[in-house]
Amino acid sequence: MSSRDEVLELLRENARYSVEDIARQTDADAETVEKIILDLESEGVLRGYRAVVDWDKLEQETVRAAVELNLTLDRETSYNDVAERIAKFPMVESLHLVSGDYDFMMEVEGDSMREVSHFISEKVAPVPEITQTVTHYVMESYKEHGIEFGDGDDDDRLSVSP
Which of 35, 50, 97, 126 is deepest in the core (most CB within 10 A)? Predict the structure, then answer.
């Protein structure tokens, strides 16, 4: 594995690692690590850094939904064209072209179910190429971006009765 791959893997594990932490773990010097990170950023490989939040630990209400989108395209319009329009909405957290029974999988986030449903019905559904939306509200999150949520009790053994 190259130094570049090692740096990228460590940043994916924990984006808060300092350059010195990464240098120590890769046996590279700090200047090399810093250059690798700058190169990854300037090439667009590293697109940003983000905290993973367990919203259940906060009093702030946040509603998340996964939305299936079906499309019908004409000769002049591509998936990329539709994706560029939808991705511009600030409430859209992620958008993926997927295989299967629907075309796009979109994740949205808002302050209330009303806000999310209004956004989908008033902003997304009217896009001419979108023929159907199916909204799934997130009820509970157990793992996100590789990080498990829970109460911190690592004892997941099943109890056995004699």
Answer: 35
